[in-house]
Write a structure and sequence with these properties.
- It is built from 11 helices and 11 strands.
- The protein has 342 residues and is α/β, with parallel strands linked by helices.
- The chain folds into 3 domains: 59 residues, no CATH class; 185 residues, Rossmann fold, CATH 3.40.50; 81 residues, no CATH class.
Amino acid sequence: MELSFKRTNGRIDEMIDALIQQAEGVHHAELVREMIISALKSGQESDYLADLKMLNNTMKEMRYTSKVFAPYRQKKKVTIFGSARTEPHEPIYRKCVGFSRQLVEHGYMIITGGGPGIMQAGNEGAGSENSFAVNIRLPFEQSPNPVMLKNRRLITYKYFFNRKVAFVKESDAIAVFPGGFGTLDEAMEVFTLVQTGKTSPKPLVLIDDESGYWDLWFEFIKAGMLGKGLISAEDFSIFSITRSTEEAIAVIDGFYKNYHSIRFVDGRLIIRLTKELSQENIEELQSEFPELLAPGTRITRTSPLPEEADEPDLLKLPRLALHFDHQHYGLLMAFIGRINLF
């Protein structure tokens, strides 16, 4: 039988509905029904065991990720990336310890990869009670660090791609210390996701050491990418570089001074704020960021839309609405920075 996501499966639809009802306590039953249909269709369409194992493990890992992070959804979190090979006696390790400790004092929790080096420094500074560790199963380097070894917020992944989802989806900011291929991979992934709108806007801070690790990287970006027209100048709004942990925290705090969050509804970008903007403020934004808007459209205030009813804790926030062109995500970061100056 060829299964469909539409309710055309007769007895199978009835059995799935009965299963969901029998399980009790299932939220958003229609989405769960589609996941069950997906599993059945996968079993029909593939007889290759490795593919089915990957699908199965992916679902298990993502389910467990949601379970671990769900109780802390209202708490802001900062993901820290950096080298697993950084030793505790190195100045950059101590800088990371101090940075994560300061973040906790500012009300944040910390997410790291759960391994040694900068990851351990992040967990050490935050303390086990304010930390998450999203570890990866590797034959070397990546056993859980002693701070997080027995923590209930330690998750160990088989797949890098699931781990990357957790790093970005669950965080409100990203801080990147010097590192190797893995660190650069993680940082560039976030650049790409923000640049293409595949994750919500969030501050990305590159914290430098005394040798100028990120300064060297920045020179390559300017000459090798911008100079060849491979990126746009507005993409520099995606990240900040600093050697000061105090400045890094100011960047993160400042990003949420007035900006709260975004959501797309029926083609409109809804920007939730912590305080109302005046009409004069809105006119300034309109004149300073015309490239963000679809031709002939304007930035307006709006009440919460019916589609936002699934986020009841945000309904009291003031909002702006605009018809975003879905191209200038780097400029959108600058737009948010401008909102935070009002």
